[in-house]
Write a structure and sequence with these properties.
Blueprint lengths: L4 H14 L8 E2 L1 H8 L3 H13 L3 E4 L3 E4 L4 H25 L2 H23 L7 H22 L2 H10 L3 H5 L10 H19 L3 H27 L2
Antiparallel strand pairs: 1-3, 2-3
Helix pairs in contact: 1-3, 2-3, 4-6, 4-7, 4-10, 5-6, 5-9, 9-10
Length: 231
C-alpha cells in the first residue's frame, strides 16, 4: 500500500533523528520540514505529534517542538525496564527460536564483528559517527529479533509502547566515543554466547547473558551521561 503523507513525513523526520541530523534541543520548523519532504505542513504536524507521543520530540508551550534531550534518570529507568523485559524475552526465545532466526542473529553478529574490527584498527579506538549509527542499527535489529523469537505478544507490546529499545539507542547516537574497541568486542562476545545458549535451548543461561549485556551497557552509558552533565 502507498504511504500516506503523514507516514512519509514521519519516516523522513525519524530517519533524520536516527542519523543525528536533528540534534538534541534543536527546534523543528514545520514549514521547513514540509518543504524538504514536499508536503504541506499538516502531515508534518501529524508526524511530529506521533514522534512526541513516542518520546522523541518535546512540545514546549509557546515555543514549538524540539528534539528531546537525554534525561539521565529516564535513561536509567529504561535500562531497568529493558533488563526486565529483554531478559525474559531471551529466556522465552531459547525455547521457541527457529533455526532461520538463529541464522539471522548470526548474520547480524557478523556485521557487528566487522564494525568492531574497524574500530579496533582505528587510531582513536572508538567509533566514528557513521560507525556508531551502523552499530546501533545492528543492535536494534538483534534485540528486536529476540523479542520476535520469544513469541510473546505482551512482552513485545510493552517494549514497543515504551520504546524500551529505541530510546536507549537514540540517546547514544551523538556519542560515538561511547563505542570503544573494548565495548564493541565485549558486546560481540556476549552476543556470540547468547546465540550459543539459544542453540542449546538453555533458558536460564539466555536470561543471564542478556541481563549481563544490558547491565554492562547501562554502566557505560550512565557513566558517560553523568560525566557530561557535570561539564
Amino acid at each position: 500500500m502507498e504511504q500516506t503523507l503523514a507516514e512519509r513525513s514521519y519516516d523522513y523526520i525519524r530517519n533524520k533523528l536516527a542519523c543525528g541530523d536533528l540534534a538534541p534541543g534543536m527546534r523543528l520548523v514545520n514549514r521547513v520540514l514540509a518543504s524538504e519532504i514536499g508536503v504541506s505542513v499538516i502531515p508534518v504536524r501529524e508526524a511530529i505529534h506521533r514522534l512526541a507521543s513516542e518520546g522523541l520530540i518535546e512540545h514546549v508551550p509557546g515555543s514549538g517542538a524540539f528534539v528531546r534531550k537525554s534525561d539521565p534518570q529516564a535513561i536509567d529507568d529504561l535500562y531497568v525496564l529493558r533488563d526486565a523485559l529483554e531478559s525474559c524475552a531471551a529466556g522465552e526465545a531459547a525455547l521457541h527460536i527457529t533455526e532461520f532466526q538463529i541464522d539471522e542473529l548470526v548474520s547480524i553478529l557478523d556485521e557487528a564483528l566487522e564494525l568492531a574490527k574497524q574500530i579496533t584498527q582505528s587510531r582513536k579506538q572508538h567509533a566514528t559517527k557513521t560507525q556508531m549509527i551502523a552499530w546501533l542499527a545492528t543492535e536494534q535489529r538483534f534485540h528486536e529479533l529476540v523479542f520476535e523469537a520469544a513469541r510473546n505478544q505482551l512482552l513485545a507490546k510493552v517494549a514497543q509502547e515504551h520504546r524500551a529499545i529505541g530510546q536507549i539507542f537514540d540517546a547514544q547516537r551523538d556519542n560515538p566515543q561511547l563505542l570503544t574497541s573494548d565495548v564493541a568486542n565485549q558486546t560481540c562476545v556476549g552476543k556470540s554466547e547468547l546465540i550459543k545458549a539459544f542453540r542449546q535451548r538453555d533458558q536460564r543461561k539466555a536470561r543471564e547473558l542478556m541481563s549481563e549485556q544490558i547491565q554492562r551497557g547501562r554502566k557505560e552509558v550512565m557513566r558517560h551521561i553523568r560525566a557530561a552533565t557535570k561539564r
